[in-house]
Predict the structure of Aminotransferase class I/II-fold pyridoxal phosphate-dependent enzyme.
Amino acid sequence: MSAEFLAPRLRRVRPSPTAVISDQVRALSAAGTDVINLGEGELDFDTPAHIKQAGIDAIVQGDTKYTAVAGTTALKQAIMAKFKRENRISYRPDEVIAGSGAKQLIFNALLATVSSGDQVIIPAPYWVSYPDMVALSEGEPRIVHCLESDGWKLQPEVLAAAITPKTRWVILNSPNNPTGAVYSVAELHALAAVLLEHPQVLVMADDIYEQICFVPGIFATLAEVEPRLKERILTVNGVSKGYSMTGWRLGYAGGPAWLISAMQILQSQSTSNPSSISQAATVAALEQGNEFIAEWIDILTHRRALIMNCVNAIDGLSAEAPPGAFYVFANCQGMSGKTTPSGDILKTDEDFAAYLLQSGHVATLQGSAFGAPGYLRIAYAIDDNRLQEACERITRACRALR
Ligand SMILES: Cc1ncc(COP(=O)(O)O)c(C=O)c1O
């Protein structure tokens, strides 16, 4: 048996670039190299103790069986209360669903609604998984390029020009991975005005980084800003980023009942309910407040400053301080044409990222993985001392270029 037995749909999909870099890091580490990983999209903070305890309690109390596919009643109530309290959006129980990570919910929503020939507008730079999920659903990713000079945000006239009769979805991700861009209320209003003109278009609001904002009160989500669009919006969120719970695999979404029901059917025939233990922990996360986030934001603000100072002091690199998420998306076009100590000429962002890994032993991700060649994503949510060391390594490696 060999790869020729694979289904044709798999040929449309690339392996996740983040997984590729993690494999390279593991291989180098296994060979004894001390690699600092600035490629991973997760916080280094521990899951808060009260949330872990709720998971432990669930195990001890025997909450270890199948639950309702879309989540327990307690979790649905906690999700509805969160949307009401923090986003001023009212959902009924049949309008919310929990799944094994936001990733699964986004995938199920696309798989349930996208057919061959349908287009999905994906503003670039984008989270690496969107185009491949669309391709797996047999749709056509319609990549729309956003500019650094526009703060990496989709402009209304660009959105209007990209919509065709075949457009099924527009994906909005704020705060954005990889740029950290956050859409203001006014910017969302301007996009909403375009979307109101096109009743066949659904909107995926991927709010997974909601809690990671450096400007208080800056976050807004489309269903709150334009309630007339609510019936066409899937608001996706989860506990991975804001509660440092990536391994618990728990995401949730709110949207029109017909869509939630379709996602639930897909889930019922694939993964079923998310882990009962993670559901119990998420109830605690959503109900018991997140006072810890202020301290996390302070720590991240310090780390962001470290990496910003490093990047902007290097000839050929530059970046603006991003208002959200925990990435710096640095312009590295100035590195193109430089020669490494071993005589190789750097041509692309991929060459530069590979050079930083092989020579500086710092893992980052090239912007082309996010649909934006000429940039580098630096994930800075790691221990301060290691981050400082990474900055020194990047600086040394860049100084060695001619
Ligand atoms: C923009 C974006 N959306 C969704 C996800 C998936 O999150 P989860 O861990 O809940 O599946 C990620 C994870 O990196 C992400 O960056």
